[in-house]
């Protein structure tokens, strides 16, 4: 689904059907055909934002939280506020247009648009989601890596856009390659002054006895939609939950650790910086079952 300003014409693809007299302000397009200009600042500078939404058996339990975060990222990037109704309608159209599959990963993208023009580019792509079933059971080995920013970077230097889900994920993927060079699978970033942040594409969850905690969003990290849903289940099960500043030494002391995100759901950390961690297989399975449905 490719967005176009209402009333304009000439985009490739077939207009989406609408019961309304006005045409929908987006078109449904064939994702195998070219649509994006080589002059788009999303491509040439990674200047834009995105969201990846899980659609499981046709349902998108976190869509509202993703649309909230999409709007928050746009504010941080000084992009125009996304029109929620249009994006929601385009999201529904993208999901409806895809042949039914168990798990869809639906990506919403908004860029600063073509250089020199003042119009953002937006699109949505629905694709089958990556299968994380093995990782959910076997877990991942994680190394901590310094992100190089202090814990208060979001307040001292908001232009660094920490906490926005920008298209510039080159650093995130470089960190994962560094983890692989170190014989691990994934990363937990720490601040330069020693606080736990997040993984390159996931939030971090710790268990400390009967309390589950995640690093607070004020540390310039993404407020995770999956972490929030995981906490809803844990609270239902009678556990305490909360967000706080965590020293990296607390990772080693935690009873268990997970990386959580929309498509992955909850993946246990089996090794942290070369040291084995305990895994609660039953609770992990319960979390994953819940996250597929709620
Ligand atoms: N933190 C980062 C840097 C991410 O890229 C992601 C998701 O891709 C998350 C956290 C987890 O967010 P969510 O649970 O909403 O998918």
Automatic annotation (TrEMBL):
This enzyme's EC code(s): 4.1.3.38
GO MF annotation, one: oxidoreductase activity
UniProt keyword list: Lyase, Oxidoreductase
Stretch list, region Disordered: 2-27
Organism: Herbiconiux gentiana
InterPro entries assigned to the protein according to its UniProt record, in alphabetical order: Aminotrans_IV (IPR001544), Aminotransferase-like (IPR036038), BCAT-like_C (IPR043132), BCAT-like_N (IPR043131), Class-IV_PLP-Dep_Aminotrnsfr (IPR050571)
Family, similarity comment: Belongs to the class-IV pyridoxal-phosphate-dependent aminotransferase family.
Protein name, as recorded: Aminodeoxychorismate lyase
Top-level division of the source organism's lineage: Bacteria
Record flagged with keyword NADP: no
Compositional bias annotation for Low complexity: 2-18
């Amino acid at each position: 689904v490719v967005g176009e300003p209402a009333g304009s014409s000439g985009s490739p693809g077939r207009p989406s059907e609408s019961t309304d007299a006005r045409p929908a302000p987006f078109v449904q397009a064939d994702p195998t055909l070219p649509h994006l200009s080589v002059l788009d600042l999303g491509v040439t500078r990674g200047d834009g934002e995105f969201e990846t939404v899980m659609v499981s058996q046709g349902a998108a339990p976190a869509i509202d939280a993703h649309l909230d975060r999409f709007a928050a990222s746009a504010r941080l990037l000084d992009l125009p506020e996304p029109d929620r109704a249009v994006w929601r309608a385009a999201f529904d159209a993208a999901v409806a247009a895809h042949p039914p599959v168990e798990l869809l990963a639906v990506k919403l993208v908004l860029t600063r648009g073509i250089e020199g023009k003042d119009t953002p580019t937006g699109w949505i792509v629905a694709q089958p989601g990556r299968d994380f079933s093995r990782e959910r059971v076997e877990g991942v080995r994680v190394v901590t890596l310094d992100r190089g920013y202090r814990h208060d970077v979001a307040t001292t230097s908001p232009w660094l856009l920490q906490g926005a889900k920008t298209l510039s994920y080159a650093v995130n993927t470089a960190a994962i390659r560094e983890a692989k060079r170190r014989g691990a699978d994934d990363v937990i970033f720490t601040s330069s002054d020693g606080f736990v942040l997040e993984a390159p594409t996931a939030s971090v969850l710790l268990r400390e006895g009967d309390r589950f905690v995640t690093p607070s969003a004020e540390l310039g990290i993404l407020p995770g939609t999956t972490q929030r849903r995981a906490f809803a289940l844990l609270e239902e099960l009678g556990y305490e939950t909360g967000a706080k500043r965590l020293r990296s030494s607390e990772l080693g002391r935690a009873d268990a650790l997970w990386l959580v995100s929309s498509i992955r759901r909850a993946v246990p950390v089996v090794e942290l910086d070369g040291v084995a961690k305990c895994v609660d297989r039953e609770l992990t399975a319960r979390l994953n079952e819940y996250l597929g449905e709620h």
